User: Fold these one by one.
Assistant:
Number 1:
Amino acid sequence: MSETRKLKTVLFADIAGYTSLMQEDEKNALSLLNQFKEVLEENVLNYEGEITQYFGDGCLLTFDSGTKGTECAIALQVSFQNKNIPVRIGMHLGDVIFKNNNAFGDGVNIASRIESLGIPGVILLSKAVRDQIKNKSEFHLVSLGEFDFKNVEEAMEVYAIANRGLVVPRRSEMKGKLKQKPIGKKIGKNLAIYLGSAWVVMEAFNFFIEHYNLEPLLLDILIIFLVFGLFSSITFSFFKGRWNKKAVILQMVIGLLAIFSTGYFIMNPLKLNPRSLRFITLKNNKSPLRNLSSIAVLPIQNNLPNNQNDYLLAGLHDGIITELGKLNKLKTISRTSTLSYAESSKRLKQIGRELGVNSILESSLSPSSNGYVYRTRLLDTKTEELMWSSEFKIQVSELPKLFDEISQMVAIKLNPGAIEDVRVHEDINPEAYKEVLKGNYLLQKFSKKDLEQSIIHYKKAIELDSTNIEGYLGVAGSWIYMQQIGVVDPKIARPNIFYYGEKAVEIDPDHWLTLGYLSYKAFSIDYNYEKGIQLTKKSLELNPNNSANRSALAHLYMQVNEWEKAWEQMWYAKEIDPLNPQVLAFEAIMYMNENKYLSAVKLIEKLSLIDEESDFVKLTNVVKNRDLGNDKEAIESMKKLYLDATIDPVTLNKFIDREYEKTKDINLTWITLLRYLQKIDYQKYYPSNTARVLYSLIPPGYDDDLFFECLSQMANDRDPNMPYYARKDGNPLQKDPRYAKIMKNIKLW
């Protein structure tokens, strides 16, 4: 027989699941097949079609007209459904080769591919057939998208007839003779899409956390779910079909693990910081530092023959930072945060990124025949290019003038507008200045021994120069620190603080350090926060890059419930001194006062790595362990608090252990301990804020009289920690008449 080629509308139909039917019930399967053929033979000729070929449970029909072919397909499918014969139909318009009563060609192959996508009750069409009938109002068509068929070069769009009584399949139900993409490429594509989407979600989430000052733990929870979502995406990519049984089981396991992990990390917070996970730095227009030139002064390289001049290196480093910090148009990183880069092998670009600065001042100090040689150079952190370098031969007495010259040169190079803020130092007593440097060096160690030694050096500076304001305020500051860390009785510290502080006021009431003292006096003794705010702001006008004053101002705003201003100042303090223990401690306290406890825990953990011996860390570890239900750890944290704060910590710690063993009730242990501490004399003095922390651990109802005893005593002593103790939000004891009576003459807010 000769071979002929014709353009035909090809209809391919078969019984879905026929092989399984044959295995289950051969007689029933043969009956369905006979009915299938009967329906075909009854209808096809009515629509000018031809039954070209049978293929077991399937059949190939051809039509000269696309319209007639579609009408026939609808009639066939309605009949099949009436007889409960599960048939799927696919149609295509293309070349068909007829030879020896058989049909071949692309038209046949593509119709077969389209039919394989179907489910019982469906009629699927290629775009070629759709174009033939699209203007026929009796046919309702729905696009199902494009499909990549086996042995077909280009993807083809497939349509379903949506007339009444016909089935329109969901894309997820359509599984046919499609190209199988390599699993590696499929997983890679899905991962790329997932990771990109996850990044966008995390950036958006991060923005809301920072912009609205939300709980950072929310970011941790999101990250947990994004990580498990990654495994979920891989599972869907690996298994064929979204509802594959193995895939569903794995998804359930992944979901349970995500929930379990979230619960675990809520109790044991991840050490993550939203800012550390940022890929994009969002611009905060409220930041006072935005668009300013910025600088970090790295620790000075010591080329001196011995370590006897450590105070000189520290003083030189601190002095340069202090003077640069007074330039209003220059963001200057504080000394605490730059010390971690001593002898660092990191490149300037990396240091610049970590500290958020665009310039770095490197320097060294070497001996000379009659003094010292100070060499310095200013570098751009982005290009690592040298911007300025110089060498100075100096004596200790000449350091202030050196600071002036460096400040002027940096201002000229980085921001000429800042040159107006450079202040020229007057001549000072060189020996007095040397004692001040030694005092400053010891003051920054924050231990009782070093603070006591710093006072000796500051007093020597005063003896040598009775107008040395830094000497007077150094003595006052040392006493303030000893009082705050709880190694000296406030009744002893306070007269010294006032005496030396007032001497500084007599000499220069407008010095930035003096203003800091006056602010401390206003808010910590008089509880006049508005005055404290004004004085601190005035001090910051003279030295805008002082992180200690910035964090103090944040707390003052917090005390008057101006939280937006409080966080603005805290972000400022963190930007110029991100590793300062005082800044981190103040931020943790702010989180505690906002009831964002888990955020505070993160900062305490970070602070522990920087300053493990900090009394603040010890105290807050007591709170953390108590709230987590770790009674024994809370007891141990409390015992550590007394190692340096009491003369006889061993006896005190045995007392704590004994009381806890008696009751197994940590609240009763706190009460007994506090009652005991009230009876001991000042020689066994405990930290001034211990009473507040101890009672804050005790739920109302255990010993309410004790609360009012502590509150009354703190009010009488004008304890600077009283505001934190008295304003504990949600404490029902604030409604007690005794509370109003004690607070009557004290202006806290």
Number 2:
Amino acid sequence: MLLLSCGLIACNNTPTANYQIVPLPQEITVAEGSGFTLDETTVIAYQGDEEMKRNATFLAEYIKEKVELDLPVTDQPAGKAITLSVSNSGDNPEGYHLTVNTDGVTIAGASPAGVFYGIQTLRKALPVTKGKAKLPAVEINDYPRFSYRGAHLDVSRHFFTVDSIKRFIDILALHNINRFHWHLTDDQGWRFEMKKYPKLSAIAAERDETVIGRNSGEYDGQHYGPFQYTQDDCREIVAYAAERHITVIPEIDLPGHMQAALAAYPEYGCTGGPYEVWKMWGVSENVLCAGNDATLQFIEDVLTEIVEVFPSEYIHVGGDECPKTEWEKCPKCQARIKALGLKDDDKHSAEMYLQSFVISHAEKFLNSKGRKIIGWDEILEGELAPTATVHSWRGISGGLEAAKKGHNCIMSPNTYMYFDYYQTKHTDDEPLAIGGYVPVETVYNYEPMHPSLTPEQQKHIIGVQANLWTEYIHTFTHVEYMELPRMAALCEVQWCKPENKDYENFKQRVIPLVELYDIKGYNYAKHIFDVNATFTADTIGNCVIAELCTIDGRPIYYTTDGSEPTEASPIYEKPIRIKANCILKAKGIGKRGATRLFSENITFNKATAKPVTLLQPTHRSYGYAGAPTLTDGLKGNHNYRTGRWLGFAGNDFEAVIDLQKPEAVSQVSLSTCVEKGDWVFDARGLIVSVSEDGEQYVEVFREEYPAMTEKNPNQIYHHEMNFTAIKARYVKVKALVEHSMPDWHGAKGYGAFLFVDEIAVN
């Protein structure tokens, strides 16, 4: 692939197209000649049927919004034209070939969808200007890496209008995404009109009130709903998406996440109710009764109306987070288990196999209608339905297992592809999110093809999808904020070959894409344009080194006294060496205006920027930058996934700090981050030992703590360990992990995680 270096250079003062777009085409080759000038004499000529005419109309709309030219569309050959056609050449049905020369522009796609993606490339390459644009001569050969390129939106927790859903589809089209996964039902609301079950509209589509925050126990007192899409609404959205070559895949989540449906039809639950549409978040134990034949008929009836409205090959049946507690007590479910001969084994319980029975029943019914199922990776718990596609969300293991068994898989690991997670470490000024930390760079760096898979097994990884759950997302502008520009990173994972990906290059290509976001009025997050800071503990110079940059090269002004930087402040030219307490603030200021203020508090003690060694390993997912994190002068916030905290599970935390010379010490402190719902607990005990030679240690502090109770708040716990002053060079700190969570916890008996940050010695 030859990258163009002249994309932003104006020719004869005419703004020039830049083919360095998102997603980056597979092959870009500079061609000879002066290129083509797009102006008011240009015509858009298409060859083909109404579908191709629609493609041409889209292109005319895109050119008008960026170049302010109102170009005519014709099905007749034209001289000075952008010509759209379908060519049967190429193996990929969504591929296209785009050529620019002095005679005009041609986009030849392997299908109308391929033509549409070529149109998106031209759209994004055009400059924002008025009346005229220069297109350098080029040949682009392009096609997607994955056939399934998805984005998911939950409308159960919070509902969005038909117009908002169409706007979401437009955003998908801009990013070459071809699957819209529409999560229509859950415990908190049923959003699909059912003709046979009208109470789903009358009762299940609304809730009395909604919990405030993260299951705080307090409620807003505001009735929510009724909100529902009619079947005609759904057909309208399906047609709108199809015009943009996007398939809508509906999800009816079963047999769990059904409390809203049970509120309307309690006879399909194990207890018979009464139930209410759930007002809080999480996983309800009230699920469909798998032992009731009428429940199976209910599932068939729902899926019948779904397939009448949605023409997609695949129907998503959920299958996730289905507690078995009611099934274990339900006489009908236990009778079904006995009748089917289901038994516990070393892999799964009989109730897990019962869930497999329900999923297989839904699969066979959909197969009889000519459809297939997709299910979340919990459908692997039991006998996997024969034609099912597995949607891997709990990390990557479910997808790898499915691919190795010969099943198709869509990769949506929560650690890379959950867009309801925070996208910045500095969450205090962010709208409330569920937690986690998935910045643009993390999304971009995801590689779906795991090296443990053989080439044949890799063929079963058919696509990648990002998911947006909306417990904490009340408005569609917030949806846009959580999606953009992370969706730009997502689409490169979905479209580009891994060897063509480069994050630094991507950041530059995002800049013109954001100009298009501005034209469309999208509410995108601006974190990647902020000042980016990297801190390193220099254990030789005993200082913290701060390196600052902006992706668009805006000059950075900074202060270290806590005052707000202006253009009169020092300009950043080289790494800043910090040797004492300070508040570092920085701001990029340039032609594009000012970035948001960056601020970081760096605190020093005897351990800061001193060597530290871990004596017990971190958990494989939470090691981040390793031991130096503990003495880098930076404190973690309430989000334990930002990289500021080190996580431990299955073993205790134990570390040694080398003060590099004998020092009088009388206090050691550290902090822990607690999020009990995520299995993250406080320490059960702390021990401090000191040594002069690093070999013989003397214990100077020991304290044990009781197990956490349900009432202990989720927060940062600061632990200070005071003892009689003693001279030592080496300080060993040990924090005991909770090895068995108490009975009140949903994961009682399992070991907890312990997250530790910033050891201070004084």
Number 3:
Amino acid sequence: MLIPLSLASALTVLSTFAWGPTGNQFGGEGGILRAAPNVDGGASFGWIDSDLNVLGSSLSVTGSIRAAGGAAGVFVGASLNRSYVSSVVGDDSDGSYFVWNLNRRNLQRGKDLYALRVDGQMQVRPGWPVAGLPIDDSPMDFSYVQACGDGSSGLFVAWNSTTQSSALNSTGPDSVRIQRILASGSPAAGWPARGIIAARSAGEAVVEDVVADGSGGAFLVYQLSPPYLQYVQHILADGTPAPGWPVNGRRLKSFATPSEYCMYSTSAISDGSGGLYVAWDDDRERPAGAPADASYGDIFLQHLLSDGSNAPGWPQDGYPVHAGPGVQWNAQLCPDGTGGAIVAWMQLDGAGYPWISRVTSQASQASGWPSGGLVASTTSGADNPQPASDGQGGAFVAWLVGTRLWAQHWRADGSLAPGYSISGTLLVDLALAGQADPVLVPSLPGSAILAWQDQRSPLGYSLRAQRLIDDGIVPVALSLRSSEADADHVHLLWWGASVAQGEYSVERSVDGASWNSLGLAQATSTDQLSFDDRTIIPGARYAYRLTDSYGRAVIAPTWVDVPARAEFSLAGARPDPAPVGQLSVAFSLPTQASGALELLDVAGRRVAWRELGSLGAGRHVLSMPETASLAPGVHWLRLSQGARQAVKRVVLLR
């Protein structure tokens, strides 16, 4: 008789590893996905639904939904015309800030900019207006909103504001604004209601990043045009410009020629010591007379100190992370955890590989990293690779190829982490499933959380997330489906996406400490593995687990109690004496071999019987209602299987 895995054991497996093999859903259909890490290793998410409402959700580091709205998300804000989630920023606890713009008026009179602070369950923090705090509700048009924490659980919000807001598609003049909001929900001391103007432009201004300086102030990175040039400005905690910085900020490059054009791909991070890293691409390699539609692009990185000067050893116009033939574009940064920076970018021409490089604070390649960086993956057609620090000197990288989401992990020494192939790891390998709009954020050291839009026909769209770890996807790419045991064998089933693409060994233990390999699990379908263990001892207790090709356990141990081998025995009538027509017989069989249960009268004639070959080994109870037609008195029960026989007396009563 097969005995199923106990419910308690099943719940233990689920609670230990809550991340599903193809990601956990945290929201329904949505777009403009934003994410932020929480200090406990989880992440918060924001998006807009099909009705242009702003929704939010939160996942713990174990993959469980913390938000009160469950898998559908929680309503954060709404718009009469259109909402746009600009930023989600962690609030130094399990909560987050949401920053969005919306139309409370009409399309001819500009937008409003709002912020809201919520806890991990997406409930509004005390002191904050339920509908959001207005950051800028003047009758102007604005866009390019960026936000970051201020280092004290508060928030910086930066945006560009267009004076001529009454005209659609206005192109200026623009101003770059920034506001600091305290954790309590009010502007910081010295900051006016609509923030301060950090820079002005005769044309368009594009805010590209805002980064806390570690002392209550912030760096702003923006583009002013014409011409298209990048600038950095430093605002102190009290809202005043930092001493020594130019009125409109410091230009990232000292030169400007008619051919120069900086793409909208500037990325900035803190250096952890009060300074700033800024990465960008430009076409300074463009030869004179080149066609206007010819593409060029190299990746550069600059390290600025708090006073606006270059860090010692850094070139005036940036360190060439990758300069040479080809078009390199969309540089993205993350810290390396030791004061340096990791840069990821995409190659537009040729194979279209994602690239990555690690640069030290002294303007040199980190040990083990080649000059010019290295190819992050040999899967071609990469689109906008995103890095996230692993907290150990390396970085995770995520990117799309068409509608397929890939990830990779490079360690601090420039080596590929075990468990990741040079082609990368495909996150969801399900037929008819497509991904879009990925967002990657750091988690606990050695891990990161990746979120995306997902379509699984015919189920439709959803928002999902997965946790990446040092050596691959979080080790729940497989989960136990069932465990059954009898005295002769244990049967195990596991489930996971595309399990047939890898080899998994089954290991067994009697104490949970030392393990012996039994062989490879067999793929019975694209998402199921099975294994039968016939080398067991009846009555024993075993733990089973799966390991991958690197010998790493990929699922929590499963304990199975093997039943003792059943004996051949006839317990007799139930009850005894038994009323005629109500006789039941209890007995035990050691095997599934054919056998018979007979009822005999005192003359030895068979008056009722049952064939037992279909019952199998174990304890059984059979009823014999046909005894209703028999005369009361003494009868005999006979159980037989093979050469074995057992006889019991039974009395039938009226």
Number 4:
Amino acid sequence: MVEEEKDEQVIVIEDLDEESDESEEGEEQQTEEEPAKEESTDEEIEEEAKSIVLSASSLKDKKKLIIIGLSAVLLIIVSVFTFYVFFGKKEKPKNVEKKPVVHKQVKEKLKKEKKEQILKSKKYNPAVDAHFINALRLQEKGEYRAAIKELKQASVDLYLSYYSIGYMYLKLGELDKAKEYIIDKTKRYLLLSIENNPNYVLGYINLFRIYMANKEYKKANQVLEILKTKHISKREISLMRAYYDFLVNNRDSDVYKLADLYPKAPIINGLLGTMYLKEDNLNEAEYYLDKAIKPYVIGSLCYDKSLIYIAKGNYKSAMKCLPKSYYMDFGKIKCKNYLAFFVYLHEKKLKAAYDYFIMNKQYYPDCYKHFNIKPTLYYSISKKDYVERKGINRMLAAEILNMYLKPIKFNLGSASFGIKLGDLYESLGLPKKAKESYEDTALLAEAVLITQKALSLYAEGKLGSALLYYKKALKRANTNPILLYNVAIMYLKNHDVEKSMNIFKQLESSYPDFPLPYVGNFIVKQIDGKQKNAQQNLKKFLVKLKSISIDKVNKSMADMGVFAYFILDNRIDKKGYKRLTPQEKHLFLLIKAAINNDLEFLSVEKEFEDIINLNIDVTNYTTIMEYFNKKYKNSVFIKRTLADCYLFDKQYEKAYRAMFGIPQYNAEDYYKMGIAYYLDGYPEAADNFFTKSILKGVDLTNAYMAKAIMQAQKGDLKGVVYYLKIMLKKDLAWYNTYIFLSFDLELR
């Protein structure tokens, strides 16, 4: 997972508080620059003594003259002694500390630099530097260009300023300039600082960090040797030596020893994290890397942390961590660019992905070989959420209700009325009218007898035969609303949605106050995936039901109101529920389980499902959609939904087969078929479908993205960028879909 070459794993040494570094340095420079107070020379002291002696000659008292003379001599002796003690030239101690090794080329560059920037550094305090404060404010707002401009106008280009400028260039993606400031200019500044102040310990430590980050291991070792002669604790030396030996000599024994002694040392925790990462112990690696990174950003450790996130499939966290991986560590920069490119591509941050890619001015196959692109599916939601949004649970509830719907009994009451009417016409001397009435009554009577046969077939579960008899009855009384309704629900039970829908529309227009057709339309719309229309029909049913007087409401119609109320609001009408028969209460529990996605309950209640002719394997929603696809053969919505379910279950062949027979494919259909064919091992067919998707929907991104992923898997990164440019140039939109072709990034 992580490359084993020892020179590839760069871990930055502890990032000491730069502000404290600068304050200490400023104090040291201030001490060196303070001019010494002017003191009297030997000649001046002697002249002063002579004047005292001459002035004494005017005294009459000889004793006083002697006393004054002796005092003057004593004063001269004390003054000379004091001058030599405090201001005389001191001899250099024998063990003189050596200055750091500075190469000739560096010296030449240093001569060209204005030494006054360091030697006359004034008193630099970023806390009172207006430019520095403004830079911080601009940086917080994300205005990095303006912040960099302010920092360059600060008092001097100090260590902290260089770091801040470099870090903002990193944010802007300008790695060359970032490296110039974080590594090159900082290194030159530190070299000049310690040349002029050999006791600048923090300068040596930071220089060691830069040498290690830049893989200048010999120079780093020289700095370590120098630090041994400075006032630095053995702990710091041992930690730095362990870090050096781990990277350069591949020795990890000291790391474990020091981990016990210094459990909070970031450098040791960072090394432990890297060691565990090499062993693929991701949890331990993450634990120690977090401890190391928490005090301050360490570039190489952020890179290792990104690798852990990717291995765990947490690309969003990797995306946040990757920009920090360049900080103080420009090793493996090409590979880091590729890693960032793939992570941002995975998260569909196309502009950022493109920017990281073009940071590499040419293709580096060695870096690309570290990554393996494995095409896969990305789901923007869980399957459970998908089921609810697609309304599969309510579709199942509607189907249970459909199986429960019963034909309305048709009696001879209307026929007897027709006979009486015929008799009346006969008595009035209207034989022609009487004949028509008798014929209509005879046809109606035939219809009643035929429906009796239809009802017996329905009771036996012979739904197809029952439909035929109801249709025969309807031919004899084709305007009768009860017969129309019975034929419509029999069509629905036989899963002929289109014909049932036409009859329900006829009933709504001809008999608008008849409530039951609205229940039928609810089932039709729900099966067709039109949830809003389905809910509207159910509400209309309840409104119509309330408008009818209670004595005229059929019991089955009233019971239907209990189910409708629950389906709409997921609440129980307690009064209505009490009136239900035990069988109807059982039915209510089935509908409740369907709406609440309780498949376990449905599977337990299989026997009751058989009673209402709902023969379905309720184990998951894919099998439920298979049932619907089998029953409602011509539903485009069901075909597309079943294909999605198969894609969720990674059954790719079944996914594209489920979409066969759709009358007119749209761009999304072609895209999903391309996904299914590609993941099933047919890239040429997949590419053909992706092309069709592009031609069908020219303003959509998904198919271009799929083609880019295909190019990435083949290693043709130029091909990837070709499609990225198209997407960025056209500013395309994404399909309104829950399923995307994506990829997993495997690290070799």
